[in-house]
């Protein structure tokens, strides 16, 4: 799973990336500080793994992971090659989802590429550039499909779908806000449009804004926009997250408590991105290893078993399933079995969140 961190120059992308991955990406107060994308792989926070590791005295603990890519800042005209537009667009094509950092803080010491703070304008700048790029992609595909129609009538369905998409894009609306039937979804997968990718808006705020975040007008505007676009927006202070990165667990908890926060903004970002793609984890545990395995929501047990090993999927007969809460409450798998809390599930069982599984 690969998430692209995007935004205008100087909105806090690289500061956020440094905090997420502790990878030391260069961060400076001038546009295009990031040119080649920095990549960092980070674990998905999951307190259940630590508990199961202690329960089984496991030798190894393996989290689900998210790959974050810090992509160069975008400016108006990127779809026509302005700034680092061509590189920006090629890099964003390679990610599964977008985390767009939106500057909601005011700081005269950090220049804004457009001169002043206006988060909705910034969102529109990026969205329009992606829309323009998608229109160009659709038009090329449409021309090709119309030529192929003479030899094969099956291309009519693709033409209809592409014209529907083009009309939507020309109304300056991203493809992710458009509804598709199953046949159209298959066509959409082949085109790989930028605005079809799911998106999370990250409102980068100051520490002062965090104290009254519910009433912050800039954050409210971004959240309202996100709802309209069928997406999500969360506020974080990238500078605070950068400070938290250098602390041990106890100091980090003290700082979060002092700020009145239940968890770090970065944990929220990682979890939201994981959820953004419709993913979930199922857990396996034993003395050798406690592990979270990433699957799509709605995955059946045999396919989940294939994540562990293809041979297990081929020879799948049943899975023993127990809820995480039941297992922890009883203290062991054997005690959970004695209470009748462990179930045998067959090939049609759909995996669920917060389940511990022996397959």
Strand content bin: 15-25%
Runs with pLDDT <50, length 5+?
23-36
What overall form do the CA principal axes indicate? flat
Task: Give the count of helical stretches.
Answer: 15
Proportion in helices: 40-55%
H/E topology pattern = EHEHEEHEHHHEHHEHHHEEHHEHHEE
| Counted beta strands | 12
What's the alpha carbon Rg, rounded to whole Å?
A: 23 Å
Q: Mean pLDDT, as a whole number?
A: 84
Oligomer: single chain
Separation of the first and last Cα atoms: 24 Å
Structural class: alpha/beta
The largest pleated sheet is described as: 6 strands, mixed
Strand order of the main beta sheet, please?
A: 2-4-1-5-6-7
Please give the structural blueprint:
Elements: E1 2-6, H1 13-21, E2 38-43, H2 47-56, E3 61-62, E4 65-70, H3 85-93, E5 97-103, H4 119-149, H5 155-170, H6 182-191, E6 199-204, H7 207-210, H8 217-228, E7 232-236, H9 238-245, H10 249-259, H11 265-276, E8 279-285, E9 290-296, H12 301-308, H13 310-314, E10 319-323, H14 324-330, H15 333-338, E11 343-345, E12 355-358
Parallel strand pairs: 1-4, 1-5, 3-9, 5-6, 6-7
Antiparallel strand pairs: 2-4, 8-9, 10-11, 10-12
Helix pairs in contact: 1-9, 4-5
């Amino acid at each position: 799973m690969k998430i692209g961190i995007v935004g205008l120059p100087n909105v806090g992308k690289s500061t956020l990336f440094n905090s997420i991955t502790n990878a030391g990406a260069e961060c400076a107060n001038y546009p295009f500080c990031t040119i080649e994308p920095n990549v960092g792989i980070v674990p998905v926070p999951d307190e259940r793994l630590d508990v199961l590791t202690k329960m089984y005295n496991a030798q190894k603990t393996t989290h689900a992971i998210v790959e974050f890519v810090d992509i160069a800042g975008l400016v108006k005209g990127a779809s026509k090659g302005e700034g680092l537009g061509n590189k920006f667009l090629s890099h964003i094509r390679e990610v599964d989802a977008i985390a767009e950092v939106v500057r909601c803080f005011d700081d005269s010491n950090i220049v804004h590429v457009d001169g002043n703070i206006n988060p909705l304008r910034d969102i529109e700048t990026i969205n329009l550039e992606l829309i323009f790029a998608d229109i160009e992609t659709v038009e090329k595909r449409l021309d090709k499909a119309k030529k192929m129609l003479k030899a094969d009538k099956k291309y009519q369905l693709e033409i209809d779908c592409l014209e529907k998409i083009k009309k939507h894009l020309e109304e300056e609306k991203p493809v992710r806000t458009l509804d598709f039937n199953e046949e159209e979804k298959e066509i959409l997968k082949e085109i790989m449009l930028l605005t079809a990718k799911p998106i999370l808006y990250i409102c980068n705020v100051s520490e002062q804004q965090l104290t009254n975040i519910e009433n912050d007008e800039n954050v409210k505007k971004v959240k309202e926009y996100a709802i309209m676009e069928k997406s999500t927006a969360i506020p974080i202070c990238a500078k605070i997250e950068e400070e938290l990165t250098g602390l041990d667990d106890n100091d980090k908890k003290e700082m979060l408590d002092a700020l009145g926060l239940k968890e770090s903004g970065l944990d929220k970002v990682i979890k939201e991105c994981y959820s953004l793609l419709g993913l979930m984890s199922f857990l396996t545990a034993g003395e050798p290893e406690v592990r979270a395995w990433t699957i799509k929501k709605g995955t059946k047990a045999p396919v989940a078993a294939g994540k562990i090993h293809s041979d297990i999927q081929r020879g799948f007969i049943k899975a023993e399933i127990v809820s995480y809460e039941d297992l922890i409450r009883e203290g062991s798998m054997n005690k959970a079995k004695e209470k009748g809390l462990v179930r045998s599930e067959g090939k049609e069982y759909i995996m669920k969140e917060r389940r511990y599984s022996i397959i």
